[in-house]
Each structure stands twice: as structure tokens, then as C-alpha cells.
Amino acid sequence: MVTYPRRFLVWWGRLLFLCQPGRVRQLDYQLRDRETCVRANGNALAQTHQENLPVYGTLTHFLDPVGSAALGRLRTRLLRQLIRNQVLDEARLSGAFGVVFDGTGHGSFRRRHGPHGRTQTHGAGTYY
Prior knowledge:
Shape: extended
Number of strands: 2
Distance between the termini: 48 Å
Largest sheet: 2 strands, antiparallel
Radius of gyration: 19 Å
Mean pLDDT: 79
Strand order of the largest sheet: 1-2
Structural class: mainly alpha
Low-confidence stretches: none
């Protein structure tokens, strides 16, 4: 049995989110390759000296009682710290921070709703 520092597990979860694998269980295989340096980067971010990488079930077991609200607050605190330390100042547009998000999976229609919409075909159905 391996005990992981909380800081490492939180950063591990963030790294998994950034890597966005097709299936989360793929991470148990893809990120263990020594050439990816995932463990070293996770240790650097978390300021730990972890020798092993957790499997997907470990992260789920850790995050279930924490809940998404606590992780949302953590994200807000991290972003505020980056702004306070002026880390993001070079990325400002006309003095303000731009917000970029991908909403392609949040709105889909079975009928065309405009001339420039993207389409995806799944089985017998086409979505706009």
C-alpha cells in the first residue's frame, strides 16, 4: 500500500485534466512512460518526492469526499494568486484578461440552426 501526499494527488488530478485522455483509465498506461516526465513534473508542482504514480482508482477515492465545490475554491485561489503575482500580465488584451473556454459539447441540436454550424454524425443521426 502506498500513501500519497495530498498536494501530489491534487496536482495529479490537475495534470490528468490537462492531458484529457480519451478514457481516464488510459492514464494508468500512457503517463507511466518514463519519457513523459509526469512524475517528476508532478513532484515539482506539488513540492513532493513521490516515487510512484497513483492509479485512477486512487484519485477517485481521494476526491470523492472532497467534492467539486472545494476543488472549485482551490481553482479560484490559484487563479487569484497568479493574478496577484502578475504571472499572467503578459497575456492581457487591452489591459484585461481574456477568458477562453470550449463549449462545443454543451449545445447540440438535431436540426440545423444556422448556416455556419459544425456537424457531427453519430450512427444514423447528425447533430449541429
